Amino acid sequence: MHTASLYMLGFSLQVAATDALISNVLLLLASLVVSNTLRFYQPGKAQYLNVVAWCVLLAGMWLFLSRWILLYILHSEAVYARVLNNSLLVRGSIGFLLICGTALISMLWYTQQEQKANEARKQDAEKLAREAELFNLRQQLQPHFLFNSLNSISALIGRRPEEARTMIYQLSDFLRGTLRKVENEVVSLEEEFQHLQLYLDIEKVRFGHRLITKIVLEENCGKLVLPAMLLQPLVENAIKFGLYDTTGQVTISIEARCVDRYLVIVIRNPYDVHTVRPKSGTGFGITGIKRRLYLLFARTDLLETQGENDIFTTTVKIPQNDKGNIN
């Protein structure tokens, strides 16, 4: 367009192309200078006048250099030199506006990139904090069970050493599986039930014939996934409030089924209405699982507890996507 305008004014194609080339190359260099400056210097609201002053300075330098170079190259074109000198104000204004436009676009671009970087850092920090809290919650669940198991082993050593030895082996297998699961955020329901069975084997040694478990896994649900080590604290809570206040047999039922893109797990245990308050939920296990589910899914409705007819029911819902992974 620059070349065409000068050509239409009657100048030769060589003169028009030379003017356009020199002017635009120098203008590009001035624009790159202001853009690169704003890459490392983002002005505050009270410093925008500094940017305008910088654009005025660059426009003046561009106008001076382009005029000097063009007159040096095209010194034999007297008419062109007169037109060039008469158009300096217009050229300077256009150059200033183009450089300011480049500065404005650069500020918007680099501000947007900085905001994206800050948001990414914020998300990374929140993710690290969330993972740290999740790890802390998972670690808090283990000592309670471990202390109980060690106390039971201590009690069995004198009276029933073979059962104590068996329980030590089972506890070792359970803790080894727990260490492997620490690195996994989610596991399949089948894997979670296998790990849960190790825990139940230990508890059956502790409570003997008093503990009866009933596990029902709906067909085609085994491949669905859930957060690792989610069920053990809930079952531990059910055993605690189902067996601690009774001397007879107690049945703990665990049922898993698929319902509308959810993996639904229901745990039931009997309870004594005179010694516990099941409607509000009991123990660190339920509180920790609620917090963990909130951190993973940002929802507070995925764990429900209910006490009715001397049966305490804990229901956990794990959202699943179309590929069988948690949402």
From TrEMBL:
InterPro entries: Bact_2-comp_sensor_kinase (IPR050640), HATPase_C_sf (IPR036890), Sig_transdc_His_kin_internal (IPR010559). One of its GO terms (molecular function) is phosphorelay sensor kinase activity. Its EC number is 2.7.3.-. The chain crosses the membrane at residues 20-41, 48-74, 94-111. The keyword Ribonucleoprotein does not apply. Residues 172-199 form a coiled coil. It comes from the Bacteria. This is Autolysin sensor kinase. It comes from Arcticibacter svalbardensis MN12-7. The lineage of its organism: Bacteria, Pseudomonadati, Bacteroidota, Sphingobacteriia, Sphingobacteriales.
